[in-house]
Structures are given as structure tokens and as C-alpha cells.
Design goal:
Layout lengths: L1 H50 L3 H16 L4 H25 L12 H28 L10 H9 L11 H27 L5 H31 L9 H11 L4 H4 L3 H26 L1
Length: 290
């Protein structure tokens, strides 16, 4: 009896390992595809955040620069989003398994997705802040002349200390990513179940749950994204702390919440498309792989 149970246990362990691998693989694939589709929208939003201009002026700028420059800076976010999706969904699955251990039974199971998402966001910030830093420097029109290539940006940031170079704005990035991941995974499941209860297909349910969750996240955390972009775009000025940088951003927006949220409409659109596609592709792949 004991001997016959060993092959069954080995088979179950192999199946469990494959499920974990699929979580990482499907997360990366879904994020890569959505990034390529949404990057032009993202760059338009970025120009609004940095130059404090209206959407039509940002689009006009990008149109004049041409298609080649439109995708200038796509490499860092493409790599970052693909690796980010790999870690996001893969680590989420890993952390959920850890939270199910008897030693952690003190945490209600209904909170497991949100708690796991909080941990995932912290890991994301540690790994991907340098990617975002390079991306923001590349996308700013002010840096075109002095830092025209990816290599020149990398050399410049390498010469600086970590806190002022690759890891500039690390604290607000950590806060934004941790809260965002926690909200996403905390909301995704209940939203998908609620939508599915209305008779929609699983694919539609996943897409809608991703869009609604991303809308809530974008609206609540948009000021942090503006702060991060404005802190990371600078390469020459004296490094300022988070509060000093926030005061500068707040004053530059004339202490107006409306101006602070300039570009917010496109952020919602971008997030809806990105996370709707990402969630739908990921859930579909997970379901197909069993």
C-alpha cells in the first residue's frame, strides 16, 4: 500500500510544480501582449504628467516626432511589464500557497489574495524601480539632447548613488505597487464572480473585473504615479526627498486637485485596456492549462 502511494504522490507533486510554472509563464505572456498594444496611450499620459499639457497637445507632440520616436523607450517597459507580469501572477500564486499553511491560519482566507498582493508589490518595487527610472528618463523630451540613447542613460545613472540613480523615488514606488497589487488581487476575484453571476462568459467576466479593478486603483493611486514620474525624470538637479518633491509637484499644479489629475482620463483608459486584456488572457490560459 505504502509503495503504491509513492508514484501517486510524485505525480501530484509534478502536477503542482507545473501549475506553479504556468502561473509565471502565463503572467509574462499576458503582460507582454498588453504592453505592446497600450504603449502609445501610456506615452501620451506621461507627456501630460511631465509637461502639464492637455491631451491634444501631447498627441500633437508625439505625432510630429513620428512613429520611430513614438516607441522610443518601449524596451524598458516591455521588459519590465513582461517580467513584472511573470512575478506578479507567479509570486501571487506562491504566496497564496504559503498563506494556506496551518501556521498562518490566523489570517482569514478571504484576505489571502490581498495580503499576497501586498507582498508581491513590495518585491516588484525592489526589482523594477531601476527599469521604471530608465523608462522615465528616456521618455522625457527634455533629456533627448543630453541623453539620446539607452546606453547613455545607463552610464549616467550608474555614475550616481543608488538612491539618486537607479533607485530614485523608491519609497513612493513601493507604496504605489504594494497598494495597487493588494487592491487588484483583492478585488479581481469578487468582481469576476459578480459579473459571471449576470450570465456573462468567463472571458468577459475576467476582462470586466480587470478593468473595474484597474479603474479603482488608477483613481486612488494616480497622485503617486505623478510624483514618481516627476522625481525619476530628473537626472541633473539636486536630489530632493519625497515630501519636498511632493510640495514641488503640488505647487506646480497650482495646488489644484483637478490639475494634479490632468491625464487621469487617459490613465483610466490605459489601465482598463491593459488590465482588462492582461486579466482575460491570464485567466483564459490558466483555465486551458487546467
Amino acid at each position: 500500500m505504502a509503495g503504491s502511494s509513492k508514484p501517486a504522490q510524485d505525480k501530484e507533486r509534478l502536477r503542482d510544480s507545473m501549475r506553479r510554472f504556468h502561473s509565471y509563464l502565463h503572467g509574462g505572456t499576458s503582460s507582454l501582449l498588453s504592453t505592446l498594444i497600450v504603449f502609445p496611450v501610456y506615452k501620451t499620459v506621461f507627456r501630460q504628467q511631465i509637461h502639464n499639457i492637455q491631451v491634444h497637445r501631447a498627441i500633437t507632440q508625439l505625432h510630429k516626432e513620428g512613429l520611430v520616436k513614438l516607441y522610443r523607450g518601449v524596451t524598458p517597459p516591455l521588459v519590465m511589464r513582461t517580467l513584472g507580469g511573470t512575478l506578479l501572477f507567479g509570486l501571487q500564486d506562491t504566496f497564496l500557497r504559503l498563506l494556506s499553511l496551518p501556521s498562518l491560519s490566523i489570517i482569514p482566507s478571504s484576505l489571502h489574495p490581498a495580503v499576497a498582493g501586498l507582498g508581491v508589490g513590495m518585491v516588484e518595487a525592489l526589482v523594477f524601480t531601476p527599469f521604471e527610472r530608465v523608462q522615465n528618463v528616456l521618455q522625457s523630451g527634455h533629456n533627448d539632447r543630453q541623453l539620446p540613447t539607452l546606453k547613455s542613460v545607463l552610464v549616467k545613472l550608474k555614475a550616481q548613488k543608488l538612491a539618486s540613480g537607479y533607485y530614485r523615488a523608491f519609497l513612493p514606488v513601493t507604496a504605489r505597487n504594494a497598494l495597487g497589487s493588494s487592491l487588484y488581487f483583492g478585488l479581481k476575484g469578487p468582481l469576476s464572480a459578480a459579473v459571471a453571476g449576470q450570465g456573462l462568459s468567463p472571458l468577459a467576466s475576467s476582462f470586466i473585473s480587470g478593468t473595474v479593478a484597474s479603474m479603482a486603483i488608477s483613481l486612488s493611486l494616480y497622485p503617486l504615479s505623478v510624483l514618481v514620474a516627476n522625481m525619476q525624470v530628473e537626472v541633473q538637479t539636486e536630489v530632493k526627498g519625497v515630501m519636498a518633491s511632493w510640495r514641488r509637484v503640488w505647487n506646480s499644479r497650482q495646488r489644484s486637485v483637478l490639475l494634479l489629475y490632468r491625464g487621469g482620463a487617459l490613465v483610466i483608459l490605459r489601465s482598463c485596456i491593459t488590465w482588462g486584456i492582461t486579466t482575460a488572457i491570464y485567466d483564459r490560459q490558466q483555465k486551458s492549462s487546467g
